[in-house]
Amino acid sequence: MEANKVKIREFLSRHFKNHDLKDDEDIFALGFVNSLFAMQLVMFVEGEFGIRVENEDLDLANFRTVDAIATLVEKKAA
Fold first, then answer.
1. How far apart are CA 78 and CA 17, in angstroms?
2. How many angstroms separate the CA atoms of 65 and 72, rounded?
3. What CATH number has the domain bearing residue 41?
4. In total, how many domains does the chain have?
5. What is the pLDDT of residues 13-43, one digit of tens each?
6. What is residue 27's DSSP assignment?
7. Residue 74 and residue 78: Cα distance in Å, rounded?
8. pLDDT in tens, 48-65
9. Does an H or E element contain 73, and which?
10. How many helices (H) and strands (E) are present in the chain, helices listed first?
11. What's this model's pTM, rounded to 2 decimal places?
């Protein structure tokens, strides 16, 4: 799972240049995410990890933190 977190952090850090994002920080609460970026994040997750994010997976809780995204990836890849 740590390798997945590294990839997720690298992707997010390109968009949150002046913030050292911690794995449990809520990217929505920090104000970094708009609707366009949310879609980019979903597309990144699907493309990078070769999974399909279904409608039922499109819950903010699955994308709020690096930890949550990594957990979703692990669940979908299993």
1. 32
2. 11
3. 1.10.1200.10
4. 1
5. 988 888 889 999 999 998 888 889 999 999 9
6. T
7. 6
8. 999 999 999 999 999 999
9. helix 66-77
10. 3, 0
11. 0.93
Contact (CB, 8 A) for 66 and 5: yes
- Give the pair of three-digit tokens for residue 43: 């597309």
Q: Which long-range contacts (CB under 8 A, 24 or more apart) does 67-71 make?
A: 67/5, 67/23, 67/24, 69/8, 69/41, 69/45, 70/1, 70/4, 70/5, 70/8, 70/23, 71/1
What's 16's DSSP letter?
A: S
Range of the domain at 68: 2-77
Can you state the percent helix, strand and coil of the chain, rounding each to 5? 60, 0, 40
Single-letter amino acid, residue 49: F
Report d(CA 10, CA 56) in Å as an integer. 26
